[in-house]
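Run log, item B.
One chain of 172 residues. Sequence copied directly from the ordering sheet:
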Amino acid sequence: MVLLFERNDITKVKVDAIVNAANNTLLGGGGVDGAIHAAAGPKLLEECMTLGGCKTGEAKITKGYELPAKYVIHTVGPIYRDGKHGEKELLESCYEKSLMLAKENDIHSIAFPLISAGVYGYPKEDAIDVAVDSIKRFFENDDYDILVKIIFYNEKDTELIEKRFGKIGKYI
């Protein structure tokens, strides 16, 4: 497993699968979710309508349609309240369930946004730690060959990551 940070538009990343920080309906929304639905085209919505939504902490997979990625893995992160209502465990589950789907579908490269750190209000520094720790933990006893990217879109997030982990690739 290789873990990279990259500043980019997740809808343009050339990987086998991108992860959508979706809402429970899987029918599109704002932020990353809306951008992915717009870039994938109407067939993504049509397929999502057949899935019956998704519970928080779970993940479901669809085709990527007009995206460069073959697949979209939709996961629903927790809405942050105060960190005392199981938010961390649910967020960890988002990464774990997404990676399980990747492995089950023979996906060898995947790009994650920072799940729940936008309108769902999860503190970004904590969300970064949960993402990195969850991904590392998933592969502790597994030799599955996969490239994992965590994608950041704006300069402020990039500066936060670089402060903690060093320089990252920037493709915007």
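Observations after the first pass:
- The mean pLDDT is 94.
- DSSP finds five helices and seven strands in the chain.
Flagged for discussion on Thursday.
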